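Objective 1b: paired records.
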Amino acid sequence: MTIDLHAHSTASDGTTPPSELPRLAAEAGLTVLALTDHDTFAGLAAASAASDIELIPGVEISCRLDDAEVHLLGLFVDPGHAGLAAELELIRTDRDRRGVRMVERCRELGAPITLSQVKEIAAGAPLGRPHIAAALAAVGITDAFTPEWIADGGRADVPKHVLATADAIGLVRAAGGVAVLAHPRSVKRRAEVSDTQLATLAEAGLAGIEVDHPEQPPEVGARLREVAADLGLLTTGSSDFHGDRKPVRLGDFTTSPEVFATLREAAGRP
């Protein structure tokens, strides 16, 4: 088995339609793929209908951990769970509000982009920073994810509604899934998740952490494996595929069959 547990489609901020992901995954040699679009299950039906590999229902939830934003992967979740669906809808609608305001701020700072341009790039998906970054790049601003523009806390950044991470873990578990913290020490994020914070999340029911990831160098992954072993957490590997938005390909980073089997068992799936 070759397993990638973190991938995005055009249902959020990827560039690949969900119906195309299973074919690309099979061509990459994958046998298992989790579709984990940001705060939505909108692409799951199309991906499932087209799938000739094992497709795991998943979602990547935007969360708050102390003063920082982190992302939580919910794997094997029931997309129809009422509590989770309601919270994701709230996150998505607030994402659109935030996107509109961020476009306004970019314009106030002198960037000649428009809301209609960003919506065209999003193609029906909830407005996200990658869509705004693409619009900025189209007018020659290639450093969008910096404090000058739309980085966390940047001049054009706007706060958004996010769940407390412990609450998100509880929702994932209530929806029949297992919770894995995505890229906890990505070199592209402002704040790292500390050992102490990981211990607190483990007590709240976190099942694992994403260790092998394109934004986490090998030495970071090695340290995370040590922490995970101390806390009894599983360690996963994933590409975090976004299509053409990032250079990584499906299957560049993978999860071991043994860890996958333990995650499946924890979710009560056959």
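Objective 1b, second protein:
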Amino acid sequence: MPDQPYEPERAIAGTGMGGTMDLGASEAATLEKVPGGPEGTGPAGRPRSLWSDAWRDLRRNPVFVVSALVIVFLVFISLWPSAIASGSPLKCDLAKAQDGPGPGAPFGYDGQGCNVYTRTVYGARTSVTVGVCATAGVAVIGAVLGALAGWFGGLWDSVLSRITDIFFAIPVVLGGLVLLSVVTSNTVWPVIGFMVLLGWPQISRIARGSVITAKQNDYVQAARALGASDMRILLRHIAPNAVAPVIVVATIALGTYISLEATLSYLGVGLKPPSVSWGIDISAASPYIRNAPHALLWPSGALAVTVLAFIMLGDAVRDALDPKLR
């Protein structure tokens, strides 16, 4: 093939597959201006990151869209329950006990004459608060301890591994019955503290494995050879590449913490009246399941939908962040 003369107007652009191809100057300029570029590239023809690819896949996933809409609605009614429910959830009329749906009470009344609809709406605040705060605490503590154990190894890793084994051996519900039975506070914080106490080992183990895998990559060895400190390598190089599994597990665990709060409240060791909780309402409605099934149906349904929404969201995030599933 004859040699082609050098043409200054020719540009070199990456193919995205590790090679190069010749493009005319006008074509190269067009590639730089068109958002998205060729397949696998982002704006200006740069390769897309894991996060941009994940967000692109999530937007096209109907499971993510539906679950996200449900969660946004739950957060909205948690912040402003009075926007869709008038009256107080603590206002009860024994004359209306176990009555069915009627004007102002589309879900009917429970055994104490309380408006089931109002209590169901206000109960979302407790569930979302417990789920979000417990997940945040578990994620922060577990991720930090797990990352340090995975990075430094040695004695620190051995001690932390044995501590997590001890916590894994404690049954969650039994631990809640023992620890929360002596608590007299009627707020959500003892319940959140208990969940963080027993929940961080799971996140810690996930973070430890992710850090051990990430620190073996070439870019970490290069940063270390250039004299980067351990903290800089952890924060700038390892954390962005090891945080994906932690986010997935934490998202799924959020729904688990909501159901755990309802379980503990149902057993009488979580939240207690006059607090408003789906677990409390389910417990109070259980004796009247034959005469007033609606009092049990609606808080149970709200709890099931909430937990399912967070689990579906976690599954969608896992599929988007796992390169092996692409």
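Residues 116-152 form the longest helix (37 residues). Confidence is low (pLDDT under 50) at residues 6-39.
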